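Reading a protein record of the kind used here takes only a little practice. To see the layout at work, look at the sequence and tokens printed below.
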Amino acid sequence: MNLLRAASTVSLLTLASRITGLAREWIVATQFGASAWTDAFNVAFRIPNLLRRLFAEGAFSQAFVPLIGEVRARQGDAATRDFVDAVATVLSAAVLLTCVVGVAGAPVIVWMMASGLERFDDGVLMTRLMFPYIGFMALVALSAGVLNTYRRFAVPAATPVLLNLCVIGAALTLTGAMPSLGLHPVYALCAGVMVGGVAQLALQWPALRAVGMTPRVRFAPEGLRQAWHHPGVRRVLAQMAPAVLGVSVAQVSLLINTLIASYQGPGAISWLTYADRLMEFPTALLGVALGVVLLPQLSAAQAQGETEKASGLLDWGLRLVVLLAVPSAVALLTFPLPLVAGLFHYGAFTAEDVGQTRLALMGYGVGLLGLIAVKVLAPGYYARQDIRTPVRIAVVVLVLTQVFNALTVPWLGVAGLSLSIGMAACVNALWLLVGLKRLGAWQPLPGWGRFLLQVGSGSVLLGLGLGWGANTIDWIGLQPQWALRLSLLMGFLVVGGLGYLAFLHLVGLRLSQFRRRG
């Protein structure tokens, strides 16, 4: 398997997800702007997303993917199928209980997450409407882990597109019907989220059937008992315990940031959400794609004792991160106003919203390299079934993030929150990198010095060009001429990207160097 091609496939499908995600945010921004209502929706949607990252895509995936890779490599497909059935049974029972507790306890959850929310009661109701989404996403995470282990990367990467399309469809078709139900039009988005959860799980099922791994869930008492006592389930739970702590550290940081933002005035949570959506473009295209491709390969290499191969995989991933994350960070820092104005400054989204979102986006730009690198470095530990080390680092980074918040938020407001996350992510990535090197899990291959010089020089030239474009055009004043503004935005980005790659080619850096087979 060509790893660069696999990562590119995941990246392209993730790009489709992020493009539809931007379209989703564009519709929300133009119809509702950044208001107390959008704050309520963003908090309510963030709660099941937080649990999804905590228990489904986060801790569960970190524990499950290395173990299913090991079971398949050592025991074959029949044992893998039994393992998947047992895990699916226990996971389904756990998320069903979680959904019941979450719907009942929504007022307490919303108060803990955003007690300063202006539309608090609406935040509670939206949370109750969308909380079952976590149940579908837990099973989607299980399916994605199985499919990635069988090197079927396309379907899991394409699945998030369905959520965005469902929310867009609901916003366009159901908004007008909400007032007749006594609800604000923003409630249409909640219906879209729930339909999207069902659609994502439905898309995975045929792909699982194709590899013979459709989970068989057994809720009968005997089936539950057998699943609970399955040795693989016990190993997943044992690995999840530190993984939950590690992922929860990041989610606690997000919760604290949301709580702080809820006291920064109406719209503050939404400004941070819009900036986060733009930041997710490079983090998903690079970090998530590489992490998805690398973790099964690293796990297999570690299970077979191929330490040198695992080190080479990490080195390959890190070079791709530097190659693409550095210019992306430069773009966020030098070109934020055109990005925000060109994508969101329409309808109810005001010039003030543009300015505040722009500052938050620049904060993310400072730490973008760290945010992406963590997603490549952490699998280096997970593949060794060492989840405790990233957890210990994450706990310290959580404390450090709040120190940064105390220093930056009084000065920068919402932008201080994103800046703190970015700076702390850089510390996290550097710590993980040094640890891997000390363990001997990563030994840098020759040529790093020249490589960094090539990428650094190209990024400086890119920044000069984008900075000129950002400062010589009245991006806010072009709001009525949206077609011209979007054309200029895309023109600068395309020319800048092609110019960066052309410069690298001139100085001897070839993309063909990154072809690698796993």
About this structure: The chain has a mean pLDDT of 83. The CA atoms of residues 72 and 78 lie 9 Å apart. The radius of gyration is 23 Å.
